[in-house]
Amino acid sequence: MVFTVGGIKGGSGKTTxxxxxxxxxxxxxxxxxxVDADEQETxxxxxxxxxxxxxxxxxxxxxxxxGEAVRSQILKLVPKYDHIVIDTGxxxxxxxxxxxxxxxxxxxxxxxxxxxxxxxNKVERLVQEIxxxxxxxxTAFAFLNRADPKGTDxxxxxxxxxxxxxFTYLPTPLINRKAYSNAAxxxxxVVEMEAKDPKATTEITKLFEAINPLIVNx
Length: 218
Ligand SMILES: Nc1ncnc2c1ncn2[C@@H]1O[C@H](COP(=O)(O)OP(=O)(O)OP(=O)(O)O)[C@@H](O)[C@H]1O
Ligand SMILES: [Mg+2]
Hints:
The protein has a single domain (2-212), classed as Rossmann fold (3-Layer(aba) Sandwich). 45% of the residues lie in helices and 16% in strands. The protein contains nine helices and seven strands, in the order E-H-E-H-E-H-E-H-E-H-H-E-H-E-H-H. Helix 3 (69-77) packs parallel to helix 4 (94-101). The structure holds adenosine-5'-triphosphate and magnesium ion. Residues 10-16, 38, 40, 42, 89-90, 145-146, 174, 176-177, 180-181, 184 line the site of adenosine-5'-triphosphate (ATP). Residues 14-15, 38, 42, 87 line the site of magnesium ion. This is Chromosome partitioning protein ParA. Pfam families: CbiA.
């Protein structure tokens, strides 16, 4: 299965989701390829920290691709891996479009703030454009990241995402927690931290569990 983590807003949590999904899938015994399709190379940095921390035993393969090569190379790599996770930059780029055309699943985190949510219609149009030209169906999931521990902003944002006819809304938000950035700076998934944050571990596990059956029942 090929997953693209995208959207057209910077800093929404794409790399956090892509790296944690890669770690979780590889921990389940799958042969996983993490593709950095963002010129900022944040997931490449993550892999470098991981190489250093785990003495090379990182548990997955990582490469960097950009532009149209994202599509042509992934098509060649699909038979070689159980799962491919593509991390993209926060803009509507050739790389992100190329990634979407070879993906089964498109994951878009939204922060519950108006600037993020304003991009919803644009991302919906992007998904529709890709669906119009893609041979295989593209399942698109939207969910909240960096959600507030309390307050009404989450509910307002959730209602907006839920109303989307393009995205399937996942009611499994990730709350704004230090554990995510702490884990990332060590090249680890939150489930791998020595001093685990049980809440972060539970919510990231729930998020990915929510994706599984929906893919199967598509
Ligand atoms: N749920 C969360 N709680 C706390 N911090 C988070 C959470 N999700 C992401 N972050 C932090 O927010 C910052 C941006 O996250 P991340 O790099 O994953 O976003 P991105 O969408 O990949 O950004 P870019 O558009 O620059 O590629 C990082 O410092 C990350 O550690
Ligand atoms: Mg990123």
